[in-house]
Amino acid sequence: MQKSVSVESNEMKEPGTTTVLELTVNNHPGVMSHICGLFSRRAYNVEGIVCIPLGNGEKSSMWLQVNEAMKLEQIVKQVQKLPDVLSVIRHNSGHKIFSQLENFK
């Protein structure tokens, strides 16, 4: 199965700004650990995580809020290679999933 990748904006971002990665993943124990572990092994912090099951629960949507940095492109390429990651969409920092959570602070 070929994985899909989409980028909402091609503009270069300044270091220190955030971006949101939207992943569609197979839903089973350990998937989030594998994905977050990949970031952790590269000393890259995930600022926020939201994950919800889709349909009958076999797949999930996962949003990761991360800082924009030079090495993010490489990490995204490595995330795409994980067997349980079905697609990756890259959003600008103002994605509604995290802006709505700001109201709860």
What is the fold's blueprint, element by element?
Elements: E1 4-7, E2 18-26, H1 31-41, E3 46-54, E4 59-67, H2 72-80, E5 85-91, H3 96-101
Parallel strand pairs: 1-5
Antiparallel strand pairs: 2-4, 2-5, 3-4
Q: How would you concisely characterize the structure shown here?
A:
The chain is α+β, with helices and mostly antiparallel strands and 105 residues long. Helix content is 25%, strand content 36%.
Description:
The protein is of the alpha+beta class and 105 residues long. The protein contains three helices and five strands. The chain has a single domain, classed as Alpha-Beta Plaits (2-Layer Sandwich), CATH 3.30.70.260. It has helices spanning 31-41, 72-80, 96-101, and strands at 4-7, 18-26, 46-54, 59-67, 85-91. A hairpin with a 4-residue loop joins β3 (46-54) and β4.
Shape: globular
**Cα radius of gyration in angstroms:** 13 Å
Task: Please report the first level of CATH classification, the CATH class.
Answer: Alpha Beta
Gap between N and C termini? 40 Å
The largest sheet is: 5 strands, mixed
Query: Which CATH architecture would you pick?
Result: 2-Layer Sandwich
Mean pLDDT score: 83
Examine the coordinates and then state which fold CATH places here, giving the name of the CATH topology: Alpha-Beta Plaits
Order of helices and strands: EEHEEHEH
- Quickly count the domains: 1
Q: Count the helices. How many?
A: 3
The total beta strand count reads 5
